[in-house]
Amino acid sequence: MDSPAKSRLQVISNQLNSGKDLKLQQCSGTDSKYRYTLDNPLLSQEQRQFYEDNGYLVVKHLVPSEPLQDYVDHFQKICQGEASAPLLVVMRDVAIAKSEFVAGEKAVTKIQSFQNYEPLFDYCRTPEILKYVECFCGADIMAVHTMLINKPPDPGTKTSRHPLHQDLNYFPFRPADRIVCAWTAMEKVTRANGCLVVLPGTHKEPLKKHTYPDWEGGVNKLYYGIQDYDPSLPKIHVEMEKGDTVFFHPLIIHGSGANKTTGFRKAISCHYASSKCHFINSNETVSPETGHEILQLARKRVGDAVTITLPDVWKLQSRLVQGTNYNFTF
Known about the structure:
Blueprint: H1 3-16, H2 45-54, E1 56-59, H3 65-79, E2 89-92, H4 94-97, E3 108-112, H5 118-121, H6 127-137, E4 141-151, E5 162-165, E6 173-174, E7 179-185, E8 196-198, E9 210-211, E10 225-226, E11 236-238, E12 245-248, E13 254-256, E14 265-274, E15 278-279, H7 288-302, H8 310-316, E16 319-322
Antiparallel strand pairs: 1-12, 2-3, 3-4, 4-14, 4-16, 5-13, 6-15, 7-12, 7-14, 8-11, 8-13, 9-10
């Protein structure tokens, strides 16, 4: 990497990581009989066993209404072009993009990588959420992937669906058991407006092959899906009230249906990981095309002059929220 390009990459990195460059650390597990949770007095015995068995856990009324409304207001500002931040990505619905574009939130399916936009990143630092995250990741916590999901009323093409997938397909760091997603409903979430669908217990299965589904109406960018899961497995529709938060394992198979209502379905989420997670080689991933597409998008954002790897991408968009940053530094 030439000197100017290296300097540019370091500037971007400094926006995300304020910790010092420390010796590579290994994740430690728990000495108890549990695999997917860590010893922590916050979870009841029933909650802990439920997550161990099913790979997800819903906590009712965890996030108050006031900050959720603030997130809606900032989302709308971003959709209207009134606010932005470095590396922030606005993703639009493929069906509307292929027809007549309408400015504003109607065409936007999600905002992601808002780690540099403080009004939204405040969600990732919510103390009530971090208390639970510590039960899965330990005390040293990175926010590794941020999203505000806006499921618009489906235009009739069913493109507002999200195919069944495993989030680990996108992440080049391990162990999977020290990664968790916090997903908070910003309004009432039902089957009608496209709630999450989970396949309980599938977090115990390996990472499966992901490809784009062959859907007639098209598929939104990076909406990969599993092609070889067992369709007879039971599915749970996770209906939630505003402020409810579901925590789920990165290997659990999940997705969401189309929004069949006239309103929007909003949720805000953050994937967290122990800062002691280690990065893996790209040839260890099951779906290398996913990594290739992520790199392509990253190069558009940082410029072709910068030599960037898949681990670099995730380090750039990760940010320490608690403890010490061990392995997500350059």
